[in-house]
Amino acid sequence: MNTIQYLLRWNIVVMLLLGITVSRVASLDFSYHNQNQLEIFLHNASFYYPDITDLYSIGKSVHGVNLWVLAIGKDIKSHVPLRPNVKYIGNIHGNEAVSREMMMHFIDYLLRSYGSNQTVTNFLNNTAVHVMVTMNPDGFNKSILGMCDGYIGRDNANGFDLNRNFPDFFKENKSPVQLETHAVIEWIHNQSFVLSANFHGGAMVANYPFDSYNSTSQTSGASISPDDDVFQHLALTYTRSHASMSLSPVTCPGDHFVNGITNGASWYTIIGGMQDYNYLSVGCMEITIEMACCKFPYPSQLPQFWQKNKDALFNFLTRVHIGAKGFVTDENNNPLPSARVCVVGREPVHFRTSKYGEYWRLLLPGSYTLQAEANGYLTTTVSIVVHDGVITRQDIKLMKSGFSKGFFNHAVHLPLLLLSLIMIFL
Ligand SMILES: *[C@@H]1O[C@H](CO)[C@@H](O)[C@H](O)[C@H]1NC(C)=O
Ligand SMILES: *[C@@H]1O[C@H](CO)[C@@H](O)[C@H](O)[C@H]1NC(C)=O
Ligand SMILES: *[C@@H]1O[C@H](CO)[C@@H](O)[C@H](O)[C@H]1NC(C)=O
Ligand SMILES: *[C@@H]1O[C@H](CO)[C@@H](O)[C@H](O)[C@H]1NC(C)=O
Ligand SMILES: *[C@@H]1O[C@H](CO)[C@@H](O)[C@H](O)[C@H]1NC(C)=O
Ligand SMILES: *[C@@H]1O[C@H](CO)[C@@H](O)[C@H](O)[C@H]1NC(C)=O
Ligand SMILES: [Zn+2]
């Protein structure tokens, strides 16, 4: 923590104490919060809920504004083996402002429900939830209240669209990586995220990978990933828990989505999107949620947005507890970090074990073959069955591929040994 952060924190604490003695402090209201108000909210949340929150910044925007993340969960500051990390990122396009407030209300809801709502408490006892309210504070600061369309405030301060700014696995992305994007890239490579969503406005739909085509010849239609069944399930979980998103044709003017979901590319293709990057670089399953027809509606509409999205925001994240998880270890049960785990038939997407040797693989009920590999170890496959409503625990032990190597080494040494013996006898 640098000096300014330190002062800010104490400043807020003093302010809060004054607030408490002078008058009852109001709870989170339905209005748009600027950066200063957002920081007060986040510091206050971590001050009131020190046991279940961890507030950290992953870097700074072009204008030097901290990119805050509030992590929420039981014992959040320590590593709990096999507890999955999930994340939400709001306001990546600065003028798509509804998500910013929804992220704040979601934080408020989780914190207030911990200990009072059994479902939420149980979830937070077993999951680490990381919420980044805004990935584009500079863009938001330029945006105009009441503007439903348009691009003012969409980009970051250098004029780059952050959801076109990630390295693309299929096409060359010439857009230079921005500070905000760089911070997110470092973050997702450091933490092992399993499930994620990023939030937008301007439409009402849950959009899942791929956004980009893995071929120069394809220019229209869906770009299907090997985990299409899981992604559809995830997207449907959101839209069906939402009060109106899955009810076709209740979408925004001009849009026609069945059940409120779409493959990214079959809607329109983009290069450098965040969801494809999450999935292909670190195996984090991310979808993109468009949550409002109007990008920056008047605050009087915020209460109904919250009522409609509240269950969807919660239920989506509970999906992290489906499929299979476990440790990949060596023969002495030492965890193997960065081992590659894939599901046979769903290559080429590989999921890497965390720095603690853990893996998570979201799968629908059925029979699968997991394949784990690490340098210097024999590639190993195991069969698993995934049931509905319960995650399958399957550890995978890898044996050193030392036998063949050892034999090869001995084979090389053998002539030398013979030679030395011969020399001795001569
Ligand atoms: C601080 O958090 C407490 C507990 O959630 C809440 O009652 C209070 O309204 C918050 N104050 C501010 C200024 O956000
Ligand atoms: C507890 O939280 C869950 C998940 O958000 C919600 O569906 C349920 O209605 C809540 N229960 C009560 C009694 O508020
Ligand atoms: C969650 O963890 C707390 C603290 O260990 C414990 O008291 C509580 O019973 C747990 N609640 C649920 C619903 O798992
Ligand atoms: C928002 O923009 C104004 C000028 O337009 C600037 O003075 C202010 O510092 C900015 N706030 C943040 C948090 O960047
Ligand atoms: C990586 O994450 C850990 C928490 O898991 C954190 O303590 C550390 O500061 C992070 N490192 C970087 C470089 O972000
Ligand atoms: C993309 O296509 C190439 C060539 O067909 C293939 O080798 C590769 O595995 C594909 N990548 C993904 C992620 O589907
Ligand atoms: Zn957007």
Describe this structure in words.
- The protein has 11 helices and 16 strands.
- It is α/β, with parallel strands linked by helices and about 425 residues long.
- The protein folds into 2 domains: about 5-320, Zn peptidases (Aminopeptidase, 3-Layer(aba) Sandwich); about 325-405, Immunoglobulin-like (Sandwich).
- The chain has an 8-stranded mixed beta sheet with strand order 1-2-4-3-5-8-6-7, sandwiched between helices. Strands 9, 12, 15 and 16 form a 4-stranded mixed beta sheet that branches.
- A hairpin with a 6-residue loop joins strand 13 (about 365-375) and strand 14 (about 380-385).
- Helix 1 (about 5-20) crosses helix 2, helix 3 (about 100-115) crosses helix 10 and helix 7 runs antiparallel to helix 10 (about 300-320).
- It is globular, with a radius of gyration of 24 Å.
- It starts with a helix and ends with a helix.
- The model is unreliable at about 20-25 (pLDDT under 50).
- Zinc ion binds near residues 93, 96 and 200.
- This is Peptidase M14 domain-containing protein.
Key traits:
2 domains; binds 2-acetamido-2-deoxy-beta-D-glucopyranose; four-stranded mixed beta sheet; 16 strands; binds zinc ion; Immunoglobulin-like; globular; Peptidase_M14; Aminopeptidase; alpha/beta
Count of DSSP strands: 16
Low-confidence stretches: 18-25
**Strand content of the residues, in percent?**
15-25%
Q: What's the CATH architecture name of the largest domain?
A: 3-Layer(aba) Sandwich
Secondary structure: elements and pairs:
Layout: H1 3-22, H2 35-48, E1 53-60, E2 66-72, E3 85-89, H3 98-113, H4 118-126, E4 128-132, H5 137-142, H6 179-190, E5 193-200, E6 203-208, H7 228-241, E7 261-263, H8 264-267, H9 274-282, E8 285-292, H10 302-318, E9 324-329, E10 340-343, E11 351-352, E12 358-361, E13 366-373, E14 380-386, E15 392-393, E16 396-397, H11 402-425
Parallel strand pairs: 3-4, 3-5, 5-8, 6-7, 9-15, 9-16
Antiparallel strand pairs: 1-2, 2-4, 6-8, 9-12, 10-11, 10-13, 13-14
Helix pairs in contact: 1-2, 3-10, 7-10
The structure holds 2-acetamido-2-deoxy-beta-D-glucopyranose (6 copies) and zinc ion.
Active site: 290
InterPro entries: CarboxyPept-like_regulatory, CARBOXYPEPT_ZN_1, CARBOXYPEPT_ZN_2, Peptidase_M14, Peptidase_M14_domain
Keywords: Carboxypeptidase, Glycoprotein, Hydrolase, Membrane, Metal-binding, Protease, Transmembrane, Transmembrane helix, Zinc
